[in-house]
Design a protein that fits this description.
heterodimer; A: alpha/beta; Rossmann fold; 7-stranded parallel β-sheet; 7 helices; 7 strands; B: alpha/beta; QueA-like; 6-stranded antiparallel beta barrel; 9 helices; globular; binds NADP nicotinamide-adenine-dinucleotide phosphate
């Protein structure tokens, strides 16, 4: 981790970066010299997360880590997030879709979900990320460089009772990754220079989301998100082919 | 493999719906002069078939159906010919090509160019640059951001009460402002740091960098003019490749491009490169200030783009007048980034740009001097002749309108 060698990514947007895996990914990127915009809804939490990264790593320039208090599900904020990232740290060449919602807690069978609950989960986990990709990937395509990473889940591939809305959204997100990759592959842009799209299943991590979903879990069996973030960044450095989905990274 | 909709569906007469309501589109129109031919699509690549992967989804922008009023604009109307009419978001664009005087679907741009040509686009994102608020005394004010200075302060153009629905020339003056005054735009607050002209206060926003961008997009609206019947959303004014948020009005020629068209250019052997230029305000409501337009605009030409321009053996085709300004500035100063005050005219001709994709412009608009320079520099007829042809064809003007493609000859030794 040598900040003076040039980092793989110049500037990144990480959604859901005020805690959990998103925070760990943002911190891991900032440590190697990537400029990062941390996005989450709670303004206090975002500000605190930026301060935590800067306090823990005196070598990181204050101007390299910024926060945006916003909701990924809000269409009126999509351009604001992209603009803040470009203005404060651009050109953006990494977008990490990590923010996510489980839907109403405790988890419940699909028939006990309101129609609006499913729509709300899709807004955060699928449509919001689609909008932000749409806004960011065009510039990436013309610059000939860019990576879009979605944090997936094993609920995308297996159906678990009570996890229906979340699982549907994660499965759709995986397919969004493959579909963007397919569209760019067919686009006529040079295949080695189009934006790349990935999905990663991070495995079970000791985070608030896990505690929300499985309150009585044995935390000793859960991985720390720092370790998962490190594996994900190491995997990205291997330049996997676009459309790839990683699981059980070690 | 190829499950895209048949290309035919994109051509010819059809009815379509936007947030503004339903419109009929089609070409050619009655009254087309004989020398203008409509050329059917010849491109059949998958790239050019799948339109709109990144086009703004106007149906969701909340603009209301309204009656289309046609503004005479601030310029003088052409005396003998049909006046150009403004288009709305979602307009299916056409391209009038010169010197051939042919009309094409916009998506056929690649077929109109030759391998070896270079297309240069402006990748600036467009800010919601119109802010409505009050002075400390409670007087109404609208401020339009004109450009960000190197020190982070903003140059602006201010108006009194009202908004874009009123002709810019008829807007009242802003309340009189002094250095130190506070202006409040909802949650976004600014201090007046200089007043170089009664209508041009320089502002410093009272917010951290992180809060500033969030608040600007929360309270700002796109700058727009009276020719549109409903308010625009920030989604309506972005090109599909927008990056740095520098422009205060959309670099509108790029609004018509899709990533498919750009990919189609690459597939044809036409390279595509970017510059960033802070496309500025096109009207201030003040005759003396209008005469000075465009104001100094920030630009950046990547070294890679400039190298491509210099190595280009074909034509260098600018998408939009902002691209011409940036490239011609570098051609004159050698500076790849900075602020440009360059004004091109028939007396200050283009040196590196040999092709232009632009909107169709009514006489008297600020883009026209530059287009005249482009035409004269390439030995083409004056704009008035082309403008008449565009109007006779029923082409639409303004930011969502049809386009013109002006092709000159490569500049020797560029
Ligand atoms: N933990 C696991 O075991 C596990 C397993 C598989 C997959 N995952 C996936 O891993 C990713 C990270 O999860 P995590 O466990 O780290 O979750 P977490 O600790 O609960 O963190 C979620 C983050 O997202 C933010 N967020 C939530 N909704 C948002 C919205 N609408 N807009 C913007 N930000 C929003 C939260 O801040 P605010 O609340 O302030 O907005 C917070 O920063 C998620 O995609 C999750 O599905 C986790």
């Amino acid at each position: 981790m040598n900040p003076s060698s040039s980092p793989q990514f110049t500037a990144a947007i990480v959604t859901g970066a005020s805690r959990g895996l998103g925070f760990s990914i943002a911190e891991g990127l900032a440590r190697v010299g990537t400029r990062v915009l941390l996005v989450a809804r709670s303004s206090d939490d975002v500000t605190a997360a930026v301060a935590r990264i800067l306090a823990a790593h005196p070598g990181i320039l204050a101007d390299h880590v910024h926060g945006f208090a916003g909701d990924i599900a809000d269409k009126h904020q999509t351009h604001a997030i992209a603009a803040a990232a470009e203005a404060l740290g651009g050109p953006v060449d990494l977008l990490v879709h990590n923010a996510s919602t489980l839907g109403p807690l405790p988890l419940r069978p699909l028939w006990d979900l309101a129609c609006e609950d499913l729509a709300a989960v899709l807004e955060v986990n699928l449509i919001g990320p689609f909008r932000l990709t749409k806004v960011v990937a065009g510039a990436m395509a013309l610059r000939g460089r860019g990576t879009v990473l979605h944090i997936s889940s094993d609920a995308a591939t297996s159906a678990y009772p009570g996890w229906g809305a979340y699982g549907v959204s994660k499965a759709a997100q995986d397919h969004l990754v493959r579909s963007f990759a397919a569209d760019f592959a067919a686009s006529g842009f040079p295949p080695d220079r189009v934006p790349r799209f990935y999905a990663v299943d991070p495995g079970e991590m000791d985070t608030k989301m896990h505690a929300d979903a499985v309150p009585d879990a044995d935390r000793a069996t859960l991985t720390h998100p720092d370790a998962v973030a490190e594996r994900i960044l190491r995997w990205l450095a291997t330049n996997p082919s676009t459309g790839a989905r990683a699981t059980e990274l070690s | 493999m190829n499950r895209l909709p048949p290309r035919r569906a994109l051509l010819g007469h059809r009815r379509f719906t936007t947030g503004f309501g339903a419109f009929d589109e089609g070409w050619p129109r009655a009254g087309v002069p004989r020398r203008a031919r409509t050329v059917a699509s010849s491109t059949t690549s998958a790239a050019s078939q799948s339109r709109g992967a990144f086009a703004g989804d106007v149906a969701e922008t909340g603009v209301h159906q309204g009656e289309l009023r046609v503004s005479a604009g601030s310029g003088t109307a052409p005396s003998t010919v049909r006046r150009l009419q403004p288009a709305l978001p979602g307009h299916v664009r056409r391209l009038l090509a010169f010197p051939t005087s042919t009309v094409h679907p916009y998506a056929d741009l690649p077929a109109l160019l030759e391998p070896g040509d270079l297309v240069v686009v402006n990748d600036a994102a467009t800010l919601p640059a119109s802010l409505t608020g009050q002075t400390a005394a409670g007087e109404a004010i609208e401020v339009r951001l004109a450009g960000r200075r190197a020190d982070g302060d903003w140059e602006t153009v201010a108006f009194g009460a009202g908004d874009w629905r009123t002709d810019t020339d008829l807007r009242p003056n802003p309340p009189s402002l002094r250095t130190g005054d506070a202006l409040r735009f909802g949650p976004l607050v600014a201090t007046v740091v200089a007043v170089p002209h009664a209508r041009r206060p320089t502002l410093r926003f009272v917010a951290t960098d992180d809060d500033f961008w969030r608040l600007l997009y929360a309270v700002g609206r796109p700058v727009q003019y009276r020719h549109l019947p409903a308010a625009l959303d920030v989604w309506d004014v972005q090109t599909p490749f927008s990056g740095p948020p520098w422009a205060v009005e959309p670099p509108s020629a790029g609004l018509a491009l899709t990533l498919d068209v750009l990919a189609g250019l690459r597939a044809r052997g036409v390279d595509v490169a970017t510059i960033t230029e802070a496309a500025g305000l096109s009207a201030t409501g003040d005759a003396a200030l209008d005469a000075a337009l465009p104001f100094a605009e920030r630009y950046a030409v990547p070294a890679a783009t400039w190298a491509k321009v210099q190595a280009c053996r074909g034509r260098v085709i600018a998408v939009g007048t902002s691209v011409v300004r940036a490239l011609e500035t570098v051609a004159r100063t050698g500076e790849l980034a900075g602020w440009t005050t360059l004004k091109l005219s028939a007396a200050n001709l283009v040196r590196v740009v040999s092709g232009l994709v632009s909107g169709v412009h009514a006489p008297g608009t600020s883009h026209l001097g530059l287009i005249e320079a482009m035409l004269a520099g390439n030995g083409l007829p004056e704009w008035s002749e082309m403008g008449e042809e565009a109007a006779a064809l029923g082409l639409r003007d303004h930011e969502f309108g049809d386009g013109v493609l002006i092709l000159g000859t490569p500049h020797p030794g560029q």
